[in-house]
Amino acid sequence: LHRLIRRQRQICIRDSCYSVLFLAGSSLLGLGTGLTPMLLATALAVVVALAIYGLRGYLSAVERHTLQPSVTTAAPGNLQPPGEARHQGNDLAVLSHASLTITSSLSLQDTFPAMVQDLSEAIPAETAALFLVEDGRMVCIATGGTGPTPWQPGDRLPLAGTAAGHVTTGLEPLVQDDLGRAQPFKEDTSLGRLGFRSSAHLPLVSADGTLGSLVLATRQPGAYHAYRVALLQKITPQLAAQLRNSRLYVEAVRMARLDELTGLLNRRALNEALSAEIERCRGTDEVFSLIIFD
After folding, report:
1. pTM for this one?
2. Cα atoms found within 13 Å of the Cα of residue 283, Cβ hemisphere only
3. From CA 228, how far away is CA 122, in angstroms rounded?
4. How far apart are CA 229 and CA 202, in angstroms?
5. Displacement of CA 41 from its chain's centroid (Å)
6. 203 SS3 class
7. For the chain, is the Cβ count within 10 Å smaller at the N or the C terminus?
8. 68-119 pLDDT, tens per residue?
9. Closest of 105, 137, 132 to residue 206, by C-alpha
């Protein structure tokens, strides 16, 4: 573009020189023919026309150089595939909204489906699940998405032979591009039976260590390329922190209902149970009885 600007400048100077030479020649010719005023007027018009033409080209090149929007070209090592660069701002906005959603409540069964819905605006997620890994088992904490899911909250599965066990050990994302083929992990086999074609498994790591995994799946083959995995890795820290906080909250609630010395349910747990039973009997017109042992 700089060469183009220099070229336009040269054209402008060249045309001006031609115009001056034409004006000088016309004046000399006019001295001998007596038509000097007419030739001078014609030469002046040519000078103005060529000057405007050259100046317009020069200014146009300068304008294109100064006002042309910046375009980022994906380098070979860039994670963005063709066509994703223009959506980067929108994708980051989606991640920000999803982060706010997941941190809005300690009840992951309420916030996780809403977070998955937010993420689906930037990343295909027809089904998703959040797993907690503890005591050699993977526990389904929450599910989300518009498609079917092979798991339900509360499901407890052996950790051996699962993608959750793989990613929580290696701490690296695992992507399966074609679930139609035989899969080495139990979760992907279950997803493939439901018609899903690709999946992504990401470890959830907090300050206390590895907590579990995030699973997403879609019917699109090869949907989870490097750019989308990088986007997911931006939200997994918030998800891991919220999973940790949720576990601490559940544990605090459990301990608040237990007697510290005996481990039995305390007065608070008794009040909660009584209130729940009274409300149940009111709705069914059943007789409520209380038996006290001392």
Report:
1. 0.59
2. 5
3. 8
4. 9
5. 67
6. strand
7. C
8. 333 332 233 345 554 555 566 788 888 888 888 877 777 888 888 888 888 8
9. 132
